Amino acid sequence: MALELPDNVVITKLDEMVSWCRKNSLWPMPFATACCGIELMATGASRHDLARFGAEVFRFSPRQCDLLIVAGRVVMKMLPVLQRIWQQMHEPKWCISMGACASTGGVFDTYSVVQGIDRFIPVDMYVPGCPPRPEQLIQAIIDLQAKIQREGTMYGREFTRPERQLPSRALRQ
Amino acid sequence: MPLERILPSGDLAQDEPQEYLWTMNFGPQHPATHTTLRLVLKLDGERVVDAMPDIGYLHSGFEKLAEHLDYNQYVTVTDRMNYVSPMANNVAWHMAVEKLMGIEVPPRCQYLRVIVAELSRISDHLVCNGAVGLDTGAFTYFLYAFNPREKLYDIFEALCGARFTNSYTRVGGLTGDASPEAIAMIREVIRELPKTFGDMERLLDRNKIFVDRTKGIGVLTKEEAINRGASGPVARASGVTRDLRKDEPYLSYADFDFQVCCATAGDCYARYLVRMAEMRESLKIVAQAIENLPEGPVSIGIRDRASLPPKGMVYSTIEGLITHFEVLMTNRGFEVPCEEIYSATEAPNGELGFYLVGDGSSRAYRARCRPPSFLHFALFPHLIRGHMLSDVVAVLGSLNVIAAELDR
Amino acid sequence: MDAMPTRTTSELKRAFPTAEISEFRGQVRAAVPVSSIGDCLRFLKEQLGFDMLVDLTCVDYLAYRGATSRFGLVYLLLSVDRGERLVVRTFVDDPQPAVPSAVPLWQAADWLEREVWDLFGIRFEGHPDLRRIVLPEQFTAHPLRKDYPLQGRGERHNFPVITRAEG
Ligand code: SF4
Predict the structure, then answer these.
(1) CATH code for the domain in which residue C145 is found
(2) Mean pLDDT, range B320-343, rounded to an integer
(3) Which domain holds residue A46?
(4) Chain A residues with CB inside 8 Å of C142's CB?
(5) Residue C5 above 60 pLDDT?
(6) What is the DSSP letter of B329?
(7) What are φ and ψ of residue A65, in 5° steps?
(8) What ipTM did this prediction achieve?
């Protein structure tokens, strides 16, 4: 076929197009337990305005979301709830661990605080800081979008690749 | 369950067969609980017959941690206690420590502490009222309330370098003096905030939906408020005219002219109005404090090895360096009596106190925090009985329960 | 230091001769033996008008210099009208530390006593619903006791791990 394609047609792989769609319509599920949750709210509020990056549709039902943002420390009593919520989310799904507490336990090296949620659920992106500034969280979302574009496939096969199956740190211990 | 089965005391008549009641779980991950509260509600249709709060979803061992950190280090943890008004916690903590050690802070420090405590009261009430609005359907109102908080954050950032984990106070003083820029920013906020308050009042005070959803809901009588240990705006909305800033003036509150805002209705709407009025009073205090800000140091200096020397002194003089070391060394550090003390402040949420036991070392032997949220959340079942399911969020919002302070 | 006698302290002393009154930086404290703490609190509420229980907490004196009993319970009372505060303390010992509950006097004691039971393991006799409050039901220790380590005994990591494949 010797037809010329018009300018408004772009040729791409289906995989890439799907990833592109996914990354630009992340629906976060805010799992805000503690102080970091306030910064999460600030990120969504007018000055920082997460909507600029296509991730402002906060939904509080895990069934509707594909990005879990764990903001704040997770303690013994809360961890089963977190795991349940993670399991209720549909594939494809990602997880951002926001703040020192969610990532490592932070200043709370005490009897009841889980020392990093990545021991118990998979985490894609860590945001350091106590609390991270809204800009940092936005950067994490941008990075996650790049990661989704890089790794995504239409069938979500990346989620069953063996090297991604294990939350690395927990099992090495 | 017919409502008559709820006894005048607010408790349930136990003899009623209750098969047709059903139980609903609410939280711990629910948008209206804001953080991690859980309620188990017993419902008769849409009417709440009983509620059983379940807490501890954010219990992180604050009090245990206090026994392992020294008096200066622990202030970072108090930031994380009531994280919508961290400065007020800082002030409360170090007031207790200074009371235990018998230290009197210099006037400039007192004034600055008053300023930051009042600014955090404003920021707390903005969130609380904003959240009440959000939960009762006024989303725009929430954004109006949240926006000025960014300005307050900017001030805190100018004062101590962090948006809300400030850790601004130290034993015997502050981490640093307020810069002229910070003071200019505070002046600007004093000019701008009344406009925000006006906007907020016009948006919601006479909004029919909001008034209908909050008036007469969750009524707390004066006797109950006292018996159940309510304090702060919750008690004042029920007619308890108690405000520690007036009744037991600490810092330099005696110097300022302000009013204690009270109401008598004791319902959600009254609590909302008390908070609105309190913000204006707080702003008045800040304005007076900033105009009369005394000159002088913000720390008691290095006498008695109690306060950390300023950083400039540590880096440039041997005396400063030695003092710095001595304060930090665990076996030299502070001189603390083997005594126990309770010291309370009027935090935005109510009476925030610390019961400290000193054992002579630089760490507290026991640092009990008296959290207002804890006692307020215990009120919840009493307030909600007999109301509708949709009132749960209004009552919850008006109590302003902060999970981290609730569970510690 | 001996306290300046006030109406409260003198009446308290008259009714409970075993009470020891002391004062520190202007704060009046009364130490009452555990056998009479229930009556003493009732007397303070009903006769002397301390109508608000501000706080109830506990201190574990395990390693405290000069301490004679293991646990000290602290009741912070307030009379709202007079604005007068009083700290009432009582001491209990292992094994089976227990005191009478203050819930019939002040509703506020309900959760406060549950918290002390949870974190210190002190029983409040007559409490309507003495369950753990902040820690999970399955927890066995009382973490604010001094012989419990800060990092716990591994309870915090005793959970199943969820991987991507299971997710
Ligand atoms: S990382 Fe810091 S700000 Fe975030 S939840 Fe933990 S203590 Fe709070």
Answers:
(1) 3.30.460.80
(2) 77
(3) 24-172
(4) none
(5) yes
(6) S
(7) -110, 160
(8) 0.88
